[in-house]
Design goal:
mainly alpha
């Protein structure tokens, strides 16, 4: 999971709508909603997998929120 976290964060940065999506995610109060948002944005889907990884999405949402707060 730790090895995939930078991939998720990078995908959020490469997303043309990334800043707007990140702002929308940050407005969500629930970490579950933030995780689901990362899944829906496609940032937690790694090319070698068939679908999104919810554990990765939760870690990614947390990392993005902490980075935005600092």
């Amino acid at each position: 999971l730790a090895a995939l976290l930078p991939v998720c964060i990078n995908q959020s940065k490469l997303d043309p709508d990334g800043p707007a999506k990140l702002k929308a995610m940050m407005a969500m109060q629930s970490t579950y909603d933030q995780r689901d948002y990362v899944v829906k944005a496609g940032w937690a889907t790694v090319s070698a997998t068939e679908g999104p990884n919810t554990d990765l999405a939760a870690a990614c949402a947390d990392a993005l929120a902490k980075a935005k707060a600092s």
